[in-house]
Design a protein that fits this description.
- The complex is a heterodimer of chains A (88) and B (576).
- Chain A has a five-stranded mixed sheet with strand order 2-1-7-5-6, covered by helices on one side. A two-stranded antiparallel ribbon of chain A has the order 3-4.
- Helix content of chain A is 8%, strand content 34%.
- Chain A is mainly β and 88 residues long.
- By secondary structure, chain B is of the alpha/beta class.
- In chain B, helix 2 links the parallel strand 1 and strand 2.
- Chain B starts with a helix and ends with a helix.
- Chain B is built from 16 helices and 22 strands.
- The radius of gyration of chain B is 24 Å and the shape is globular.
- The chains are: A mainly beta (88), B alpha/beta (576).
- At the A-B interface, helix 1, strand 4 and strand 6 of A face strand 9 and helix 5 of B.
Chain lengths: 88, 576
């Protein structure tokens, strides 16, 4: 579910082999959420699913790997065309 | 933003450091480029006010050290590690910095520490989500990379440390959340998180949404999501819905705001329940429904019912983000709700000379108050920089602004950098100041750049406005407290610390082993030792131990990767 974000400027990122549409200025978490992906990590001890929680960079639940760079907070990391996102 | 603009118009060299990639903080959070800007008139005025300010977006301040007598060194990291494309203007300014003073600290120069960026942005919640480094001498620039105020939102490149003579900390606050069974399920978000997703990204968090917690912030979240097309199944306010009414009747502006929310709730048919809370969330891999309870006066659950939803937005007030002030040794005190905040005097000076604080860091009070704070702080910085008495009274009454003076605590900061009797001695070192620019004590006031200094009437109006806003903020704390009955919502398996996956059971066991305070519980059971460093679980753990949360003692205001830290020490390595 998303607003009109200017179709002509939209681009794609990938998450676990899946293509995710994104708009300029959107965070990776927002793009994933808009595509219906709400969890993208499992916890170390109990393997519980995690995704977005605080949404503003405080809680670190939403960690992802972007183009090989680890430990990025999906809620703060702006999506760029072609980003390869893998579960943190 | 208000402070930066005010100080710049008075002729100070000002850099505004914002961890986010777009201006606006939490309250004026802006949508992605190409969208209609939000809060247009007020926000536009703030942006226009930034003429002459070096706006550094995507700069998360992770540490500040130094003092007003030497200078403050401000360490930043970029919002994204692979962001290496800086604005042209920025690059140019960075070179100017490097030539200006060498900009060295501990062997670090701009060149060597470039690209020291890692993750994430300023996480501050509420309005002025940025640290501002106000440089107090117009002709002596150190902290500066110019960037268009509404820059194209490119993630900024991290550069070397900045230097400043004065520092205004306005890092805002973030959502305070309470644990309950299932709060770690995907689909459970903080209210501020849902709001950020919507305002900053144009993404609605879900289709069937429950909003729960306490405080007026739930209303813009609920109405915003409803207006964007989500079905808001209900807003569950744990306190009374009408507790604020007497205060609203005395405050026409706020009454109008409240009436606006009431209308919007009605228009979208959103039920607003008082004395109820979400006490559990359920689902396999994602949220499918929540348990809502009627609460008694202490928030223990009475009757319960289940409600289907795919998303829960929850928030129980805010935690001020004061890490930088604590790093600098600024004295702290407690907000009306027990949250640690920075202690300031009437001019918004902290206990450390040259360091000022505004907005939520000195007490949660909302965007309007934060803006008034910013203007006040700027006037104090201007006055202090000019070695003139501030327009506001100062003296020894450092205190929590929320408390009447007669019961101000003795802060007893004898061991800290206590300012001298009258006012902080900022001690602008004369050797660092080109003499021709040095304001003379004898020079009449009006010779200094003062086009932005309000006349007496304006100052008085601002003062009255601030007092009203502070009184209203106090009232909010009284009307929307957090009651300890939430502890009864927990089960032994409920996670308290999300990062380290510490269940309530482990906290209880630590207590059985003799841990009587939050610190000992942390050492035995590890809550607060994970990535977020207790930002989320600090409040619940403290309350479970019967304490108010302590001020944070984090050496880094943002988690930093070792590799990036190591890059700050290249010269030392070479020497060895």
């Amino acid at each position: 579910m998303t607003f009109d974000t200017g179709a002509e400027t939209r681009f794609e990122i990938s998450f676990g082999g899946r293509t995710i549409p994104a708009a300029p200025g959107q965070t990776i978490a927002a793009a994933l959420y808009a595509a219906g992906v709400r969890s993208w990590r499992t916890t170390r001890f109990e393997g519980r699913p995690r995704g977005l929680f605080c949404g503003i960079g405080v809680c670190f639940d939403c960690l992802v790997i972007v183009n090989g760079t680890e430990n990025l907070r999906a809620c703060l990391t702006e999506a760029r065309p072609g980003d390869e996102v893998t579960p943190g | 933003m208000a402070a930066a603009g005010t100080a710049a118009r008075a002729g100070l060299r000002v850099a505004l450091l914002d961890g986010a990639i777009r201006l606006g903080g939490q309250f004026h959070r802006q949508p992605p480029p190409g969208h209609k800007p939000r809060n247009s008139r007020k926000f536009r005025r703030l942006v226009e006010g930034l003429a002459g300010v070096d706006v550094l977006l995507g700069h998360q301040v992770w540490a500040v050290e130094g003092s007003a007598t030497a200078h403050f060194t401000i360490y930043t990291q970029a919002a994204r590690a692979d962001a290496v494309h800086a604005e042209a203007a920025s690059a140019e300014a960075a070179r100017a910095d490097a030539t200006d003073t060498g900009a060295t600290h501990a062997g670090v120069t701009y060149e060597e520490s470039a690209h020291a960026g890692v993750t994430g942005a300023e996480s501050a919640h509420a309005e002025s989500a940025h640290a501002e480094a106000a440089h107090a001498e117009a002709a002596h620039a150190e902290a500066a990379h110019a960037e268009a105020a509404n820059a194209e939102a490119a993630n900024a490149e991290a550069r070397g440390p900045l230097r400043a003579r004065a520092l205004l900390i306005a890092t805002g606050a973030y959502d305070r959340v309470l644990p309950f069974p299932g709060w770690d399920l995907p689909g459970v978000l903080t209210a501020g998180g849902a709001q950020a997703l919507l305002k900053g990204n144009g993404v609605v968090a879900g289709r069937r949404i429950v909003v729960a917690g306490t405080g007026p912030f739930l209303l813009p979240v609920a109405t915003g999501l409803a207006a964007a097309g989500a079905r808001i199944v209900g807003v569950f306010e744990a306190n009374s819905r009408t507790g604020l009414l007497p205060a609203l009747l005395r405050n026409p502006a706020k009454l109008g705001e409240a009436a606006g929310y009431a209308l919007r709730l009605a228009r979208h048919r959103v039920p607003y329940h008082g004395g109820q809370a979400v006490v559990a969330a359920h689902g396999g891999d994602e949220l499918t429904h929540v348990t809502v309870a009627r609460l008694d006066a202490d928030w223990k659950a009475l009757t319960t019912r289940d409600i289907e939803c795919d998303t829960l937005a929850t928030g129980y007030g805010f935690t001020p983000q004061i890490d930088l002030a604590v790093q600098l040794g600024c004295a702290t005190t407690h907000d009306a709700d027990g949250s640690p905040i920075v202690a300031v005097d009437a001019g918004l000076r902290t206990s450390v000379p040259g360091v000022y604080a505004a907005g939520e860091t000195i007490g949660v009070g909302g965007a309007a108050l934060a803006e008034l704070d910013g203007v006040q702080a700027a006037h104090t910085i201007i006055a202090d920089a000019a070695d003139q008495p501030a327009p506001e009274p100062t003296a020894q009454d450092w205190a929590n602004r929320d408390r009447p003076s007669q019961d101000r605590p003795n802060l007893g900061w004898a061991n800290r950098d206590r300012p001298s009797q009258d006012r902080p001695n900022l001690g602008w070192p004369s050797q660092d100041r080109p003499s021709q620019d040095r304001p003379s004590r004898d020079r009449p006031n009006q010779d200094r750049p003062n086009q932005d200094r309000p006349n007496q009437d304006q100052a008085k109006r601002d003062r009255v406005k601030r007092q009203r806003a502070e009184a209203f903020a106090r009232r909010l704390h009284e009307v929307y407290p957090v009651r300890d009955g939430w502890r009864e919502w927990l089960t032994p398996r409920t996670l308290i610390c999300r990062c380290e996956e510490v269940p309530y059971q482990a906290i209880l066991e630590a207590g059985d082993l003799g841990a009587a305070d939050a610190r000992t519980v942390k050492l035995l059971a590890r809550p607060g030792m994970g990535w977020c460093q207790g930002r989320i679980c600090g409040y619940p753990v403290a309350r479970l131990c019967g304490e108010d949360p302590r001020h944070p003692g984090r050496p880094f205001a943002h988690p930093l990767r070792m590799a990036d830290l190591a890059r700050l020490l290249p010269q030392r390595t070479k020497d060895e």
